[in-house]
């Protein structure tokens, strides 16, 4: 049963656990009467409002109509709540973020505070939520008027409104994910909001799912996540993001080399037909846990949302939209002079370009379902086409791997329907 899936239940429980704790903090410090420094009380209230909003945004994305609990639960009876309409969930998220934004600082000086919410994070999340609401796949919910609100809040992040933090793109894409030095990636000026993780106290579990066959780091096992072949093949030849996104070449300490062969995915020595990902691999981590931070919003995401919102507001790409998308595209290439021309596109062509750039730039950073909802026509076409993709046969003279996981292409044809765009409530 899908609604009894452990990961689905975990996502539901984790988000409501965060909401429960945020409600307690908001009640304790948000009423104006507290026994701690008022400025600290305001900041803690702002952080709790931000985290509650982020959790409800996750629930809205995955499940749609969900119980809206905005008060501290103190009795068993108050724990029983009916589902609220999705429009009410969106409105509550917006109200939390608008209330949180003035309470949060632009930046934290202490290293241990760099995983906390800031004004820039609240503004970026406001832009993201308005963008999502504007194009929600449910016609009774979507409100295109909110593209303008999204653009206004995202501009505040870009333009450093009222002394805001100056976010910038990391000069080289491969520095973002710390494949050589995990700790250095945590301090990138591209991070707008991230969940701080480290091996000493609170490692992340992504590493466990990404450890690749015969690698010399992590567990001896094989991860259970791999790319679909059409997505692997979609990257442009000079795109530096390709080598960061996939771990398709493994050089072992003993000199042996394993190379993923997209033309022979059933006989190249890998145990999956799709290429493994490596964005969240921590090569220096013991066992199955990693010390990477989890990025929630990067500045590249902000720029691509600006490009998307500007195209929607003006019914076609503007100079602002071109500038935003081209900043991201140029950073992704070590030879910018080879950058393909993105000028003179109409509304639909530019929209598809934004979708493509988001897939290449933000792969495996938990934006895919939301992007799919906003770009539903493109998403539907790609997913359904991928499920019909035929895996190349084993070349003559070579043997098929056995056993092998057939995950480079869905095992059966997929048809996307409106009733399957969100998960069932656990």
General description of the model:
- The protein contains 14 helices and six strands.
- Strand 4 (249-251) and strand 5 (257-259) form a beta hairpin.
- The protein is globular.
- It has 426 residues and is mainly alpha-helical.
- Helix content is 41%, strand content 5%.
| Order of strands in the sheet with most strands | 1-2
Helix- and strand-based class?
mainly alpha
Q: Please work out how many helical segments DSSP would assign.
A: 14
Question: Could you spell the SSE succession in H and E letters?
Answer: HHEEHHHHEHHHEEEHHHHH
Mean pLDDT: 89
- Low-confidence segments, given as residue ranges, are none
- Helix coverage percent: 40-55%
What is the secondary structure topology, with strand pairs?
Layout: H1 6-29, H2 38-63, E1 66-67, E2 83-84, H3 86-100, H4 119-134, H5 146-158, H6 182-185, E3 191-195, H7 206-210, H8 229-233, H9 241-245, E4 249-251, E5 257-259, E6 294-298, H10 299-313, H11 319-331, H12 347-362, H13 368-374, H14 376-386
Antiparallel strand pairs: 1-2, 3-6, 4-5
Quick summary of this structure?
This protein has helices spanning 6-29, 38-63, 86-100, 119-134, 146-158, 182-185, 206-210, 229-233, 241-245, 299-313, 319-331, 347-362, 368-374, 376-386, and strands at 66-67, 83-84, 191-195, 249-251, 257-259, 294-298.
């Amino acid at each position: 049963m899908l609604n009894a899936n452990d990961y689905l239940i975990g996502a539901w429980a984790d988000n409501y656990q965060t909401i429960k704790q945020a409600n307690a903090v908001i009640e304790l410090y948000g009423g104006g009467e507290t026994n701690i420094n008022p400025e600290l009380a305001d900041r803690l209230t702002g952080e709790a409002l931000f985290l509650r909003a982020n959790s409800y945004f996750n629930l809205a994305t995955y499940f749609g109509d969900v119980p809206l609990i905005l008060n501290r639960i103190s009795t068993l009876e108050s724990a029983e709540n009916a589902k609220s309409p999705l429009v009410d969930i969106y409105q509550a998220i917006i109200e939390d973020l608008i209330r949180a934004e003035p309470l949060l600082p632009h930046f934290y000086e202490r290293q241990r505070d760099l995983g906390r919410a800031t004004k820039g994070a609240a503004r970026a999340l406001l832009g993201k939520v308005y963008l999502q609401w504007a194009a929600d796949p449910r016609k009774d919910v979507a409100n295109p008027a909110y593209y303008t609100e999204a653009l206004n809040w995202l501009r505040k992040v870009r333009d450093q409104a009222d002394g805001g933090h100056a976010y910038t793109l990391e000069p080289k894409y491969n520095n973002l994910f710390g494949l050589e030095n995990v700790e250095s990636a945590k301090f990138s000026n591209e991070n707008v909001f991230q969940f701080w993780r480290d091996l000493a106290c609170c490692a992340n579990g992504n590493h466990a799912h990404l450890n690749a066959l015969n690698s010399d780091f992590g567990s001896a096992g094989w991860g259970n996540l791999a790319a679909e072949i059409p997505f692997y093949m979609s990257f442009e030849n000079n795109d530096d993001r390709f080598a960061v996104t996939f771990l398709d070449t493994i050089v072992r300490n003993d000199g042996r080399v394993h190379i993923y062969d997209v033309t022979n995915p059933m006989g190249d020595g890998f145990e999956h037909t799709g290429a493994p990902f490596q964005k969240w691999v921590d090569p220096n981590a013991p066992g199955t846990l990693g010390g990477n931070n989890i990025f929630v919003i990067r500045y590249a995401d902000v720029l691509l949302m600006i490009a998307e919102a500007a195209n929607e507001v003006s019914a076609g790409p503007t100079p602002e939209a071109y500038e935003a998308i081209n900043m991201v595209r140029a950073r992704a290439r070590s030879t910018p002079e080879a950058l393909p021309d993105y000028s003179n596109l109409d509304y639909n062509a530019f929209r598809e370009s934004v979708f493509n750039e988001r897939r290449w730039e933000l792969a495996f950073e938990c934006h895919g379902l939301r992007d799919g909802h906003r770009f539903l026509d493109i998403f539907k076409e790609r997913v359904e086409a991928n499920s019909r993709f035929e895996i190349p046969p084993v070349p003559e003279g070579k043997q098929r791997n056995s056993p092998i996981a057939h995950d480079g292409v869905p095992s059966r044809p997929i048809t996307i329907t409106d009733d399957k765009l969100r998960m069932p409530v656990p």
